Amino acid sequence: MTRTPSPLEVHKFGGASLADPTAIRHAVAIIRDLPGPRVIVLSAMAGVTDLLLEVATRAQAGELVPALTAAATLRARHLAAARTLVAVGRERQELLAFINAQVDELESLARGLSILRELTPRTSDFLVARGERLSASLVAAALIAGGVKAAYVDAAGVVLTDAGFGNASPDLARTDAALRATLGALLKRGITPVLTGFIGTAPSREVTTLGRGGTDLTAALVGRALGASRICLWKDVPGLLTADPRVVPDARVLPQLNVREAAELAYYGAKVLHPRALVPILGRKIPVFVRPFGEPGASGTEVSERETGLDVPVKALSAAPGQALVTVEGNGMLGVPGVAARTFAALQHEGISVSLISQASSEHSICFCVPAGSAIRAQQCLRAAFSQEILHRDIDGVTIRDGVATVAVVGLGMAGTPGVAHRTFHALSQAGINVIAIAQGSSELNISAVVDEAQAGEAQRAIHAAFQLGKVGGGSVAPRDRLDLFLLGFGRIGRSLGELVAELPSHGTKVRIVGVADRSGVVFDPDGLSPHRLATIAREKAKGHSLRHMDGGRADTAEEAIRRTLRHALSHPVLVDVTADDTTAVVRAALTHGMDVVLANKKPLAGPAAEAEGLLSLAATHGRRLRYEATVGAGLPVMDTFAKLVETGDEVRSIEGCVSGTLGFLLSELERGQKFSRALQAAIDAGYSEPDPREDLSGADVARKALILGRLMGFQGEPAAVVTESLVPPAARSLPLKQYLGRLASFDSEWSERVRAAQSKGQVLRYIATVTPRRLRVGLSAVNLTSPFASLRGTDNQIVFTTARYREHPLVVRGPGAGPLVTAAGVLNDILAVARR
Ligand code: ADP
Ligand code: ASP
Ligand code: MG
Fold this sequence. Notes:
By secondary structure, this protein is an alpha/beta fold. It has an eight-stranded mixed beta sheet, sandwiched between helices. A seven-stranded mixed beta sheet has the order 20-19-18-17-21-22-23, with helices on both faces. The protein has a six-stranded antiparallel beta sheet with strand order 12-13-11-14-16-15.
């Protein structure tokens, strides 16, 4: 049959576009402004389908009270919207009665389920279908109230499906006819049909649903049946993007996409379209426009037969989480005919859909992905299908690997471009992501990788960056130049850093703190922790509360927290370690998973040589930055100076330094005649010392700094090779901290004596690190008053570089070298340097 092209348009509004009465008014305004005939297709109001499913599962679990509470919420929401949108009168009365009847029925269903405790897909569909029925009747009434001739149409009866409850497939030919008859009659009379999306009818006349997001599919069915001139899908995103913006922050709007490309993205998990939404209109020349509900003037994305941008190999990517990889394996498979065919026939017979297939060329194994929920069924049906082969050991067995995701890279242009697979997998390996399986469709429109589900986000970000999809012309969604900090440790330095970040000028680099972690737990918020929230966390912590018990808190370890954090769409994530703990494992995890790292903590780089080198080379191989200026001399430019000397071809021969703010403070207080116990307590109170001041007094802290400096200069040794003079008497070394602090006064006279002895020779005591590429020594020295170290006061540090060029007059860096604020400033400097990369 040939029909003259009609200017008819189909407009679908998703749940997010029907969130509340204001949104519905906006939808009504969009519809009213449409010039020609149109069919409106509607999802349930935002969150309603989830709430209905909750009623069902709660009731089935026997939890009637929460089920009825959810039902009451639904009733209140719809009644309130009806009263806001429709004026008093007969229309409103009818609408209120309809809403009440739907929710009354829901409540009795819930009661029944709570007794029977059995929820079939059939019952579930009957129950959730009312979400669309409620919203469509509401919008139809609002349109009528707004002066539009409109009529509510229930899709049950006109969208005819199979009996696949929960994920039914439409019978295209019969649906075409039914939709044409019903909608055609209304359109002829100048009435705008307002159709429920998502639902249909099984041959048994029972209501079915088309699977989550099914309203997109309903819109396509209507467009196909009526030969519409276009289908508009109004959504809460600016269009179809190069990737899911919740996962890839620099995703960009695609102005146009070929229908095969879009179908591939939808099928491989892009949540923006139902997986089969475009199937009914393939080859029909009906363009689909994904349009931003919040900005009706914007053009969004055109999905059509046009083939554009064939010069770029990749247009977009998508991911499907919650998959399982099933492998049929065996040495004897070579000799078994038709293994692949039999495998997929068995799965088809079970009604299990397979999303990705990969066969090793050796033919020893076939593997494929199925939704995790179908994995066991797939395994059972294959074990049955190959029972003979398994018995004869031709096939070893059928195994399942759970918790994987498929990531699909899509673009028509890849057919003519060599090296797309290489670029994809190179990007993944650079990001340290293990690829479990790969597949390339015969259409050469898609390359897919199976990765660990926890790494799916990073995988997408890595591929997105590798193909420079952030540069697509259609505009971005999220700011790209922001740093998202994850703070490890939230003591004095962490809190000072929080304050410095809050005071950064608004025109410079944008920096947010998205997470803080310590031994008591983690608080993470992908939208950022406001200064107010950080202050609250600090206050609660001071009261002794654990992070895990705070608003948004979890009991994760730092490593778990890093992994969880990276599942979110962060813009340039940076791990900032301001602890004094052994955090090497966490730093490794951060570098491997795509974070840059800034350390104020000395331990990761001052432990065993292999560990420190391991971190530096890990950063290098992953292309990540690892900065640690604040580990020596707090905010003073020590590493920077070293780097600049080396960069300009100078050779650093030795570094000598007073690099302990605590010891500097202590010694200059003693010089002034202060008692040791008083001076040390003052250093603790001011936050100069390490949490246990014996870390400073024993020389351990200075030895770590010496080691970090030594390793810069090529020192190869282990920590034990640093010759270290301890200022803690042997008997006091193993005391519990509290007892040690209780005995400080007993060391007073010995210290006074030492200081006096030096002074009598015209000398002062300084704790000095001496560093060369071969030898590291830290200890107490009595220096003459003419020494540059003699004039140091308080917590000031001094680092002296003797180099090939600065030999006679060494280069001196001097200034405040301890305290939370200057250390935080040093850390912030590194953070901003990371941003400038
Ligand atoms: P609707 O309201 O029409 O049902 P959805 O919520 O189903 O809309 O689809 C929009 C969501 O899809 C967005 O919130 C976005 O996070 C997600 N999404 C995933 N992939 C993409 C993509 N490539 N482009 C746009 N949005 C995407
Ligand atoms: N309301 C259904 C869902 O949430 C269908 C849809 O929104 O398209 O999945
Ligand atoms: Mg949807």
